[in-house]
Amino acid sequence: MNKVSKLVLTFFSAITLIFVSTTVSFSKVVGDKIILGAAVSLTGKYSSNGVHTQNGYNLAVERINSMGGVKVGGKTYKFEIIYYDDESNSGRAAQLAERLIKQDGVQFMLGPYSSGLTKAMAPVTEKYKIPMVEANGASRSLFTKGYKYLFAVLAPANLYLDVAIDLAVEKNGGKPVTIAMAFEQDAFSQDVRLGILDAAERTKSKIIIDDKLPKELNDMAATLSKVKATNPDVLVVSGHTKGALTAVRQISEMKVDVKMLAMTHCDAAKLSKQHGKAAEYALCASQWHKSLSYKDKFFGGGMKYAADFKKKFDYDPPYQSAESSAALLVFKDAFERANSFDTKKVRDALAATDMQTFYGNIKFAEGGQNVSKPMVLFQVICNDDGSKCENKVVAPTKWASAELVHPIPSWSKR
Q: Which contiguous run of DSSP H or E holds residue 253?
């Protein structure tokens, strides 16, 4: 091969390399589409909440796209999401994060459902410097790793139920209370537990039962037998959707009297629909409730969001759907402020987020957690025959729509 031929070959090889590199670099935008990646649990134990997550994402994509899309560099783009089923498996979630980034060329990620799966994906997105806005991973350990590309719109898990302990103490005349608790052995529930431990120490309350829920989340009779024997002031349960359903079913079957029952995920579990009046008076930690007064231009307020969601999916939105929709609003805002698809510039714009959505105020601390939105507690209140039950916000007092019913009436008086 002569010298000129070698130079020509080298030139074309360089051009090809530049073309390939450019294709990979800009594959996050195809035509007028901003491609986001998401691995969510469509099968496995988290499938119910995985579907709520996907529905929240899809409603927001549809709304943003129909209202002018995302404006970057003087052009208008629309969101599109590539979905994979992580099967409620953390190893699978990590594999899919790699696939979305390396094979599908995704440069911007939406989070999965649950803290455990988010913890599996976060090291991958951080490794490749891929911004991820997540809506369903609340474990506080996510925000102590020094991640720079992870942003969570929801309050951290340790804040889910500590307010319930404060409420119990308040109702006890400011005096310490006794606490029974049972938790799933996953990252999220263990962080909720740490929040209860902190609240107990702060209020000088005493934990008299500290049990682990079985892996299958289908039987907590052993814990409830202890509750009947010791009569604690508060029973706290965290086991995602299945754990909430199991708790209410067995409390009803065993006629366990407790002054206060506080749980996570009972709105996603549709307690009143599943168990009717047996679910009444349960106190439920929630990231969001439709009666709250937050507003934005895409969904208006919570009531309008709930109506739009129900029209499309034929059920009331749990907070998992609302926070998932909020993640898309955050991404849109960041893209437009960055005015770029450069991942570093978008990451910096995300870090500077300070906005209000229908879901709540969103502002990120250095660790990536949202520090502007408190948790709320609602209580299930039913009519006399149990044919209609509603979720009434009882805390924080600023947003309360009803007064807490306390203590819970005994089963003999219901």
A: helix 240-254
Would you say 376 and 393 are in contact if contact means Cβ atoms under 8 Å apart? yes
* CA–CA distance, 376 with 127 (Å, rounded to integer): 34
pLDDT of residue 292 exceeding 80, the answer is: yes
Q: How many CB atoms lie within 10 A of CB 371?
A: 14
Question: What is the architecture, at CATH level 2, of domain 27-154+292-363?
Answer: 3-Layer(aba) Sandwich (3.40)
Among candidate residues 13, 49, 17, the one with its CA nearest the CA of residue 242? 49
Which superfamily, per CATH, for 159-286+383-413? Response regulator (3.40.50.2300)
Residue 377, judged by CB atoms within 10 A of its CB (0-12, 13-18, 19+), counts as buried
Supply the mean pLDDT for the chain. Answer: 91
Instruction: Please give the pLDDT value at position 400.
Output: 85
Q: Are 238 and 191 in contact (CB under 8 A)?
A: no
Q: Is the pTM of this model over 0.85?
A: no
